[in-house]
Specification:
It is built from seven helices and nine strands. By secondary structure, the protein is an alpha/beta fold. The radius of gyration is 15 Å and the shape is globular. Belongs to the SUA5 family. TsaC subfamily. Keywords: ATP-binding, Cytoplasm, Nucleotide-binding, Nucleotidyltransferase, Transferase, tRNA processing.
Length: 180
């Protein structure tokens, strides 16, 4: 864990297990780290990224503008493998939100990933560990096959065993954007 946190704090890009697939992570406030992650994935900046944390309080500034009903919908699924799109009101960098007025947030219940964000001291960017157009890595050997030695840390145990990536829902409407 300490090596993963050191890598994040130093602006590195790491691979870690999540609830269903391996993810690539970095410090969301470091534009160079995010640019490197996007380059590794061959992912356009415009799409935006997911912020993941093991502590819902890391998202308090983004959640306080939600209605009681919206917050109840979110609270009913967290912690867990549901990612919510919430309005960001320019509280997150454009390199995280892309061209969107919302940001994707997940309060994870994966042991390593939750502990990683808590040790890091805030949410981390976490996106599937695969180049765009390829299947997400479900095992460490797949991460290594995709990225070789281009990552600063690869580890954290196994995925949570879910067969589908996290579900994505819109907090404003409750609509399912991507089934999980």
């Amino acid at each position: 864990m300490a090596n993963a946190v050191r890598a994040l704090l130093a602006g590195g890009v790491i691979a870690h297990p999540t609830e269903s697939v391996w993810g690539l992570a970095c410090d969301p406030h470091n534009p160079d780290a995010v640019a490197r992650l996007l380059r590794l994935k061959n992912r356009p900046l415009e799409k935006g990224l997911i912020l993941v944390s093991g502590d819902v309080n890391h998202f308090s500034g983004l959640l306080h503008n939600l209605s009681g009903d919206q917050r109840a919908r979110i609270d009913a699924t967290w912690p867990g493998p549901v990612t919510w799109l919430v309005p960001h009101f320019d509280q997150v960098p454009a390199w995280v939100s892309g061209v969107h007025h919302s940001v994707a947030l997940r309060h994870t219940n994966h042991g390593f990933t939750a502990a990683l964000s808590r040790a890091f001291g805030g949410p981390i960017v976490s996106t599937s560990a695969n180049p765009t157009g390829c299947q997400p890595a479900r095992y460490k050997y797949q991460v290594l096959r995709y990225f070789g030695d281009e990552l600063d840390f690869v580890g954290g145990g196994n995925t949570g065993g879910r067969s589908a990536p996290s579900e994505i829902r819109d907090a404003s409407s409750g609509r399912i954007v991507r089934a999980g």
